[in-house]
Design brief:
The complex is a heterodimer of chains A (146) and B (81). Helix content of chain A is 33%, strand content 35%. Chain A has helices at residues 12-18, 54-70, 100-117, 137-142, and strands at residues 2-6, 28-35, 43-50, 74-80, 82-84, 89-97, 120-126, 129-132. In chain A, the strands form two sheets. In chain A, strands 1-4-6-2 form a four-stranded mixed sheet, with helices on one face. In chain A, strands 5-3-7-8 form a four-stranded antiparallel sheet, with no helix packed on it. In chain A, helix 2 (54-70) runs antiparallel to helix 3. In chain B, 30% of the residues lie in helices and 23% in strands. Chain B contains three helices and five strands, in the order E-H-E-H-H-E-E-E. Classes of the chains: A alpha+beta (146), B alpha+beta (81). Chain A binds chain B through residues 34, 49, 51, 53-54, 57-58, 79, 90-91, 111, 114-123, 132-135, 140, and chain B through 4, 6-8, 54, 57-59, 73, 75-81.
Amino acid sequence: MTVRVQSDPFDAGAELNRFAQDRTDVGAVVSFTGVVRDTKGDLKEMLIEHYPGMTESAITKIADEAVQRWALADVLVIHRYGSLKPGEPIMMVATAAAHRAAAFEAADFLMDYLKSRAPFWKKEVTEEGATWVDAKDADEDALKRW
Amino acid sequence: MNVVYFAWVRERIGLPQETVETDAATVNDLIAELRAREERYAAAFADTSALRVALDQELSDFDAPIAGVREIAFFPPMTGG
């Protein structure tokens, strides 16, 4: 299992190629990359704040649960903080399992939990000013699926 | 005890963290003490349903006891992913 919390950009393709490459018991690898979206065309940057220490432990706890529930061969979580520009990757998860159902489901579970249980806060900076992104009720409701 | 604030809670209070001497029994008791201090605390803690709390870096509840806790953090609902 690999959990990385960093301000630096990362290469999702290179990370995915390295992920679980030494495992011959893996039949399925699923990955998700979250990207900074500029919906209205006015986003200057996204600022991501986090809680050093708790961030790593919260993500590790979520990843541990995914490994156990879906018998994953490996899991990778990378999440950035700091100043990000539109189009840059924010985070990625990758899961490796014997079969695809487990890999897909575990990646979906990880994303739902990272959204609402990993201590990150997003702030959008535009010409108009800066606004904290509100958590959505739908994101909290999504946890009930699991 | 070390009290830590994040996101708009940090901005409203104007501090990322501070040391607080308290005999408060629960998180709610500590919030009542902080609210009574100054308007900026009252503003940050006006609606606790808009807040989350972590005790020693674990998510917790507002009625949780805080005896022995070293670090308490207040922040809005998380927006990771």
